[in-house]
Amino acid sequence: MSKLHAFFSSSIQLHLYWIILVAIIYIIIHTYRYKSINQLLDIYFNYIPVLTHEFGHILFNKLSGGKARDLVIVARPSERLATSQQGFAITQSKNGLGQSITTFGGYVMPPLMLYIGFLSTQYQYPSLFITAYLLIFIYFVCLTSRKLLPMFIVILLIFLLYCFFKSENQLAILYVVTITQHFILGVLLGEVLQSSWTIFKLTISTDEITWDGSTLKTLTHIPTFIYSFIWIAINLFTVYQLFRVYFIP
């Protein structure tokens, strides 16, 4: 119990430069994801961002009265290359409005979680943010139809947590919270930045590409660039708020 208390009461110092470094590495790996080892590194680095994006679809689907059927993170490089999908959520909406809300929620979730993560650190409760992601992952494991890799990750987490709580080193708690918090925030920042560029490219593309923006256009008859503008604005506003807090007196 004392270690649980230590975990939830852990406060850390936020090193924004570490987060920026992780974000830069994330963007570089994602940009060159079709090159040999980067195919695997891209899966490792964007597992959390993809989970966040797809969970956003499910969360907004639930808020609009729908039902979640499946949540999949594509973990094989060959499948990602063949389908151009990193993950997908299968949901059932009550009506067109619910489907629109569900579709809209995917790109909203990463900047939202990024902002919540920074707030949790600012108010000295980073462990709550990490716990939130653990709960999201547990929900994902229960829902997904592809349980092999998630179950392997669960077993690995159980083993690490066992070693963690068996250890008498109290500093280990602080190290785990610090590293985990900075890594999650770093990959989320990288995702928010690179997804803004991706949204922009998809919006101006003359090719017929099916993505959230084109789906919303079909559902609502509102031009894609309106949704793209909203998503990019949310992303940039979130990044601005974070940097304003830490760089502007």
From TrEMBL:
The chain crosses the membrane at residues 12-29, 123-142, 148-165, 172-193, 225-247. Pfam families: Peptidase_M50B (PF13398). InterPro entries: Peptidase_M50B-like. It comes from the Bacteria. Coiled coil: none annotated. The keyword Membrane applies. Keywords: Membrane, Transmembrane, Transmembrane helix. This is M50 family peptidase. It comes from Staphylococcus cohnii.
